[in-house]
Amino acid sequence: MKTNLSFIKAARDKIQLLNQKLLPHKLDYVVCSNGADVAKAIKDMVVRGAPAIGISAAYGMYLTAWEASKKNKKLTLDLLKKQKQQLDAARPTAVNLMWATEQMLQVATPFFAGEPSKAKDAHLKLLLALYEKALEIHNDDAERCLKMSNNAVKYLLTKYPKEKYNILTHCNTGSLATGGIGTALGAIRVLHEKSKINMVYADETRPYLQGSRLTAFELLKDKIPVTLTVDSQAAYLMQKKMIDAVFVGADRIAANGDVANKIGTYSLSVLAKAHRIPFFVVAPKSTFDNKIENGDKIVVEERAAVEVLEIAGRVIAPKVPVVNYSFDVTPQVNITAIFSEDETLE
């Protein structure tokens, strides 16, 4: 299954990231030639979505090594460790970011120990190994997206059979946020392919408007029926029996099944539970963080007040204090099922 959009163009000496801050009005790319460029793009939300920033960070680790080699700088394990720290700090809630940089560091470490580091072509082999690992992380994510999407759809069709479904989704979890068809949006794409979608209701997702700017844009491109809705309207749609299921992604899943995701996800789970509507999370295994016991331990990113006080550079509110958590945590008890590429957790 193919989509009409991709968040990244990768080459040996750079990556180009689709500037998602400009969508849907303009298709423009930000060129990243090293890890610092990638970290800035992640921090500034040029690229967003847990799998996508993990993939970008993997390439960022490679590009740091590439730049050092190209400029005849000393390529050391310490250099890569420092780059990992910078990338990891760009968005602290999404565990896929740390997972990807750790994968890259594990590839690099053996090259700086013992005989491999003394070989004449050691740096060339290291660059090749890092590039191949970044590609692997990228390509594997596409396969994972398809598997978890199929798992979610099989469960829905079996447990909640219906001729066609009205699905509510939050934020953006499609090809702009992953290396493939998406997580939650991937499941929606599979449902559409099976002619099982009546309507997708996309939350606008304040304050960054990922739903209106990105999800509606993706679904329109793929000719999947979509209706945009304001975040605060979800309860009324459920009350009017216009929603059959809620599908969301995840940025981090604790060992007990608590889920950190885009702000507004928790309130949707509460509403879904109150209206007896199934609430599903679709996410790859790289999003699971078994080192964290429960959602209380997840570090939730707070972003700048300007994201709430302004829209597209236009001031919409007086200059007052702002609370702007980028994520919230949904307790496991509110979740009907979590789908990964390997399993279904109820």
UniProtKB/TrEMBL annotation:
Record: active site: 251 (proton donor)
Domain of life assignment: Bacteria
Coiled coil ranges: none
Gene3D superfamilies: translation initiation factor eif-2b, domain 1, Translation initiation factor eif-2b, domain 2
Chemical reaction(s) catalysed: 5-(methylsulfanyl)-alpha-D-ribose 1-phosphate = 5-(methylsulfanyl)-D-ribulose 1-phosphate
Sequence similarity: Belongs to the EIF-2B alpha/beta/delta subunits family. MtnA subfamily.
PANTHER family with a match to the protein in the record: METHYLTHIORIBOSE-1-PHOSPHATE ISOMERASE
Name of the featured protein: Methylthioribose-1-phosphate isomerase
Source organism: Turneriella parva (strain ATCC BAA-1111 / DSM 21527 / NCTC 11395 / H) (Leptospira parva)
Organism placement in taxonomy: Bacteria, Pseudomonadati, Spirochaetota, Spirochaetia, Leptospirales
